Amino acid sequence: MIVAQLTDIHAAPGNDNLARFARALEWLEFIQPDALVVTGDLVDDDWFAGYAAIASLLKGQHCPVFLLPGNADNHAMMRACWESEAWMPDALHFSVEVKGLRLIGIDTTLKGEAAGSIIAHLAWLERQLAGDDGLPVLLFLHHHVFPSGIPTMDKIMCRGSGELAALLTIMPVARWPSPQGMYTDPSPAIWRAFRPTFAVPFVRRIPPGLAKKRCHPPMIPLL
Length: 223
What we know:
Elements: E1 2-6, H1 17-31, E2 35-39, H2 48-58, E3 65-68, H3 75-81, E4 94-98, E5 101-106, E6 116-117, H4 122-129, E7 137-141, H5 151-154, E8 158-159, H6 161-170, E9 178-180, E10 196-198, E11 210-214
Parallel strand pairs: 1-2, 2-3, 5-7, 6-8, 9-10
Antiparallel strand pairs: 1-11, 4-5
């Protein structure tokens, strides 16, 4: 089971990030992932044509694709360009099963803020985790949930990380890999009840913005 993650495309008319995104997707063809999750900051400055171009590229993938918004994204434009039955009506969360693995994405964005928060969504997350299917879980979000050591980025980290840790600690699954966006380096840190990892931001590495997780029991991602 291979889950690919792309993040922080930040496409804009003045950069070449759409072309780089297309090259990253071409590279994914060699990996043949079972699912692709794109964890936000798709475009800059509400560039509608950028959302449409990203959607067009993603529709050519040979695996299920799931999108989360980042703090730079326009929810209405995302919904207009990407039809997804997985999204919730009031937030762009998703909870889906792919080949015996549950993928849960949480929309941690706050309107008008760069920072994120999971506090208002913990009840929804608890309902997803309390399901009776017994599947292992990968949890995705855009904002990081523990300090990275980068002061400017830690100012906008996800609020409610302590509450999230408390929830995950009492849930029956022993380990919770949590792929997150926004950063440049994979993190080996153990954060309370689960192991967080960072995707590579799209604009800084080649192949840009890609994290690959090969998942098998006991659900520790091999980076």
